[in-house]
Amino acid sequence: QVQLVESGGGLVQPGGSLKLSCAASGSIFSINAMGWYRQAPGKQRELVAVITSDGGTNYLESVKGRFTISRDNAKNTVYLQMNSLKPEDTAVYYCNTGPAKWLWGQGTQVTVSS
Predict the structure, then answer these.
(1) What is the Cα gyration radius of the chain?
(2) Fewest CB within a 10 Å sphere: which of 28, 85, 90, 112?
């Protein structure tokens, strides 16, 4: 079973930046589209960004121009660079395939607050 480990979250002021990382075990990482998801308190989990096996990307409308998803298949790792963060970006962020088919990791908390 593939294991996902997210890291890089934290507390940041509005307008700040964070870079999230997600490391996946297993050798099947490179053939899968990978996504970053988030879940805010009291809300459903939503897909924020997805990157295909050949590097194509797509984003939630509210994060376009601010977030960038990337991947390093040699390291079985997917990244999410988040710039110009807003309080409404506050959530626990998770990675998984797109659409999600692996067990969820523990996620990483991102809090945007002054």
Answers:
(1) 13
(2) 28
What is the pLDDT averaged over residues 25-37? Answer: 86
Which amino acid appears at position 37 of this protein? Answer: Y
- pLDDT, tens only, 66-86: 999 999 999 999 999 999 999
Measured distance CA(58)–CA(40) in Å, rounded: 21
3-state secondary structure of 93: strand
Contact 81, 37 (CB under 8 A): no
Task: Reply yes or no: is the peptide bond before residue 99 cis, omega within 30 of 0.
Answer: yes
The DSSP string of 15-80 is: T--EEEEEEE-SS-GGGS-EEEEEE-TTS--EEEEEE-TTS-EEE-GGGTTTEEEEEEGGGTEEEE
SS3 94: strand
d(CA 28, CA 31): 6
